[in-house]
Design brief:
about 525 residues, alpha/beta, about 20% strand, elongated
Length: about 525
């Protein structure tokens, strides 16, 4: 057998080449890869010696030669192919090891120039990979160091590489080429005439990896599957480890994402309960148990069969409280042994463990998406994700009455929750706990009324609450409804032509109102 090795990332290559050599495989290589193998005492033949043609154009041309591609593409089961190789003195290449110039890493560097990017577009590598992967029945193509161990083990145990393994390697190779070409397209079509890059390239090339097929989609007559980003962010839902329970459904995953995105936005111990993509209870506490107990009070009816997320470890006490109700999915950074023992008796409960994100300068380093995408008929809407965060210093008090420190904290809490409630959204809070949530109505007034109805149904009072509206009040009537329900402080974006009228109404009613300067529509 002959193996051609030509890699940019040389991780694990020497050990792999030693393994190949031990199985009698002849090693052929290029440039720096050949030097590395030779320096480590391995017998290696330079590609230029095989092709009888030197590398040229600063290495741009070295493997683009019939003696390389003929050896990769020749079908061993066709006598005419083998005869052609013999006539032209071409040896077969049975194992191809290629990873590509680091284009993605290069363009991710600050200050990368177009020239840098162009020089890191691999030509010979993808050409060889395509040739070998096309002829997968005869050629094993390795494009990542993670594949080395399994191939060596198979050679060790059976003396050959199976057709199943070769086909899997071929699929992985074509996927790698597809992702590589898409990265080049994304970069080049995002360039502007002045050398800057737009957030939205001329051609968008989504790259996603399937995690699992789902039983069905949003409804039983729909088919579905779950995919992750090619490079998922730490702390995102796709990194979750399912510890127990039934297979996740389409709706489970969608609701779990809403709950997890909301709960990880709080610094203090928090619990979020989601039903049909809307938070129906959110609270902070001293620990997971207190946060859960407060969150459940908001709307225990809707919480039945809901999704529950914590941003703190779940201990036995919290687990026993949660286990008293029907829950579809439970998420937390970790669970104690006692907590897992509690849910072991409830085998259908889906328990997910997700490490909290490490944090970083950019919101997407915190396990969040950089872009949001929504399908429309034969098209896509793309936007930067709503990752805007605000603090007390960002709030503008617009009324004569100043909010107290406690009111400011509740206003910010209500604002964080409102961001994850479907528009139109009205959220009443007090003492870091949701009291009433009104979601997804065509009228903001109806959202406020529904929040009040739900609060009364749960036996909660809206007196003295802080209220958040995800968008401005176009008229004073929306504010009046909120105040009529008992709110004494309100947070809203501002920005309406009638802001002066709404501010005057707040002063007339004797409440404190602050503007956030940020709208949080969620459709």
């Amino acid at each position: 057998m002959n193996a051609l090795l030509s890699v940019s990332d040389k991780t694990g290559l020497v050990d792999f080449a030693r393994g190949l050599h031990a199985h009698g495989v002849r090693l052929v290589s290029t440039g720096g890869t050949a030097k590395l193998l030779a320096d480590n005492g391995l017998p290696v033949t330079e590609v230029a010696e095989v092709t009888a043609f030197p590398e040229m154009l600063d290495g741009r041309v070295k493997t683009l030669h019939p003696k390389v591609h003929g050896g990769l593409l020749a079908r061993r089961d066709l006598p005419e192919h083998m005869a052609a190789l013999e006539r032209h003195g071409i040896s077969t290449i049975d194992i191809l090891v290629v990873n590509l110039y680091p284009f993605e890493a290069t363009v991710a560097k600050p200050g990368c120039t177009l020239e840098d990017a162009i020089e890191n577009i691999d030509i010979g590598g993808p050409a060889m990979v395509r040739s070998g992967a096309k002829n997968w029945k005869d050629v094993a193509v390795l494009t990542d160091a993670s594949q080395y161990g399994a191939v060596l083990e198979e050679l060790k145990t059976s003396g050959s590489i199976s057709q199943q393994t070769k086909f899997g390697l071929s699929v992985a190779a074509f996927n790698r080429i597809s992702n590589y070409d898409a990265a080049i397209s994304d970069y080049l079509s995002s360039l502007q005439q002045d050398g800057s890059r737009t957030l939205f390239p001329g051609q968008a090339n989504g790259r996603f990896v399937k995690l699992q097929d789902l039983r069905y989609g949003e409804n039983p007559h729909q088919e579905a599957a779950f995919y992750r980003d090619l490079h998922p962010a730490p702390g995102s839902l796709v990194t979750a480890q399912q510890l127990q329970g039934k297979e996740l459904s389409y709706n489970n995953i969608a609701d779990a994402d809403a709950a997890w995105e909301c709960v990880k936005g709080f610094d203090a111990p928090a619990c979020v309960i989601v039903k049909h993509a809307n938070p129906c209870g959110v609270a902070l506490g001293q620990d997971a148990l207190e946060a859960y107990s407060k969150a459940l009070k908001t709307d225990p009816t809707s919480a039945f069969g809901g999704i529950i997320a914590f941003n703190r470890p779940v201990d036995g006490a919290a687990a026993k409280a949660v286990a008293k109700q029907f829950v579809e999915v439970l998420m937390a950074p970790s669970f104690t042994d006692e907590a897992l023992a509690v849910f072991k008796a409830k085998a259908n409960v889906r328990v997910l463990q997700i490490a909290l994100p490490p944090g970083g300068a950019a919101p997407w380093d915190n396990g969040r998406n950089a872009m949001d995408i929504k399908r429309v008929g034969s098209g896509l809407l793309m936007q930067t994700a709503d990752n805007k965060e605000i603090g007390i210093a960002d709030l503008k008090v617009v009324t004569m009455k100043q909010p107290t420190r406690e009111e400011l904290e509740d206003l910010l809490f209500a604002w964080k929750v409102a961001k994850y409630v479907k528009s139109n959204a009205i959220v009443f809070c007090k003492d870091s706990m949701t009291i009433g949530v009104g979601a997804g109505q065509m009228s903001r007034l109806d959202s406020a009324r529904i929040a009040a109805i739900k609060a009364r149904a749960a036996g909660l009072s809206l007196a003295g609450t802080a209220a958040a509206s995800d968008a401005f009040f176009p008229f004073r009537d929306g504010l009046d409804v909120i105040i009529d329900q008992g709110a004494t402080s309100v947070i809203q974006p501002g920005g309406s032509m009638r802001d002066p009228e709404v501010i005057a109404a707040a002063d007339e009613r004797g409440i404190a109102m602050v503007f956030s300067g940020v709208r949080h529509f969620r459709h």
